[in-house]
């Protein structure tokens, strides 16, 4: 009998969590040991269940995937982490792998590919989506699209989201204010993190104030 693969899913979107958990639970040899929306919840499950695989969302609302990965590694987990994302920059791809993730999986890929990725990780093999591999090469050689584009300028949407951050609003509140989805705001936040090289909202505020106040915070 094949060894049972114990899986923990960490994602802040409840609907995505529930549907993916149900799908994976039907796969032969897979067992879901937890489905969490925050790193704090995940660490409790890790301590009690010791999962073989953690499917970790790169953008957990107020928490960044790389920070979450650091905390998971400090917990002493011997299992493998597959970072799940809707997309990330070249530089972010490099940071994720340097932080200890064994693979990167894109959310718009097929369920069959996810099953294959999980089985490969359990077998000790890494998993990189071809698009993530291109980002890794570009990021490692210092030739990412962002780096080639010269001085970083904020888009109008990025400026509005940054303003919301300065007002102390959550992603959900900014989304309501701009009449867009929360997922859209999270994507813009990630763009801001990648442009500044920071991992938290407080670091983003500090960088904006200290280094980019004249161009990023000015009212056009």
In helices, the fraction of residues equals 40-55%
User: Which oligomeric state applies?
Assistant: single chain
| N-to-C series of helices and strands | EHEHEEEHEHEHEHHHHHHH
Integer count of domains: 2
**Through-space gap between termini:** 65 Å
- Identify the CATH class of the largest domain: Alpha Beta
CATH superfamily of the largest domain: Response regulator
Average predicted confidence as pLDDT = 80
User: Strand percentage, roughly?
Assistant: 15-25%
Number of helices: 12
Describe this structure in words.
The chain folds into 2 domains: 5-140, Response regulator (Rossmann fold, 3-Layer(aba) Sandwich), CATH 3.40.50.2300; 151-211, Arc Repressor Mutant, subunit A, CATH 1.10.10.10. Helix content is 54%, strand content 15%. It is built from 12 helices and 8 strands. The protein has helices at 14-25, 39-49, 65-74, 90-98, 111-122, 130-140, 145-148, 156-166, 171-178, 182-196, 201-211, 213-216, and strands at 5-10, 30-36, 53-57, 59-60, 63-64, 80-85, 103-106, 127-128. It has a 6-stranded parallel beta sheet, with helices on both faces. A two-stranded antiparallel sheet has the order 4-5. Helix 1 links the parallel strand 1 and strand 2 (30-36).
């Amino acid at each position: 009998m094949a060894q049972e693969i114990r899986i923990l899913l960490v994602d802040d979107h409840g609907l995505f969590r529930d549907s993916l958990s149900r799908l994976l639970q039907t796969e032969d040899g897979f067992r879901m040991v937890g489905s969490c929306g925050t790193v704090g919840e995940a660490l409790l499950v890790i301590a009690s269940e010791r999962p073989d695989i953690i499917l970790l969302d790169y953008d957990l609302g107020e928490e960044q995937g790389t920070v979450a990965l650091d905390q998971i590694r400090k917990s002493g987990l011997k299992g493998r982490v597959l970072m799940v994302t809707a997309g990330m920059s070249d530089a972010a791809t490099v940071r994720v792998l340097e932080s200890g993730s064994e693979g990167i999986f894109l959310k718009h890929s097929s369920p069959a590919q996810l099953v294959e990725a999980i089985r490969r990780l359990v077998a000790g093999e890494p998993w990189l989506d071809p698009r993530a591999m291109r980002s890794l090469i570009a990021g490692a050689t210092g030739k990412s699209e962002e780096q080639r584009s010269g001085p970083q300028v904020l888009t109008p949407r990025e400026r509005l989201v940054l303003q919301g951050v300065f007002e102390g609003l959550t992603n959900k509140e900014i989304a309501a204010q701009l009449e867009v989805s929360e997922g859209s705001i999270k994507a813009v936040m990630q763009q801001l993190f990648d442009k500044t090289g920071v991992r938290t909202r407080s670091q983003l505020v500090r960088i904006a104030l200290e280094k980019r106040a004249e161009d990023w915070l000015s009212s056009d």
